[in-house]
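Our working data are protein records whose layout never changes between entries. The record below serves as our worked example for the rest of this section:
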Amino acid sequence: MTSPLTPVTLGTDQARARLDELTVIDVRTPAEYASGHLPGALNIPLDQVRRALPEIRHAAERGDVLLVCASGARSKNACTMLAEQGVPAATLVGGTGAWAAEGHDLHRPAACATPAGWSMERQVRFTAGTLVLLGLVLGLLVHPAFQLLSAGVAGGLVFSALTDTCGMAVVLAKLPHNRPRAADLDAALAALRGR
């Protein structure tokens, strides 16, 4: 049995210097990916990484793999998952947010010239804020017990920050506009096999 690998991180400048030699996999939702991604990145959402494991393993045997998400948290989780399977990969520190903040280009497909959707972080902030306001309004107008909804969301946000996970993002990722279409994932897997 092989021992788990230690995940590696790359800074934005390191990744940019090696971009042509890296296989870049963006683990965000299709909507987030369409809103802007690293040039040449393939979209394999985090919940599909296990399904894509054989193709990712094959790509890692031919060269270095870089996993990317919005902030680095999901790609770090994917990197750990791959390391446990003996597949070496690196994660981009700060994700596409750091990449864009450094002034590096994000690729936006022409088909997505109009806003393709909100980033997962924005969807979580909107949903959490809406639930808090709803709990407060219903607590004032209907029954004070509805304020527990606001307290629950606040507790969830604290837990999310402490554990660097986000249950709300997991739930929102299952919505139809955030789920990958089979053809998109199949195309990404085919492109990964060809590298």
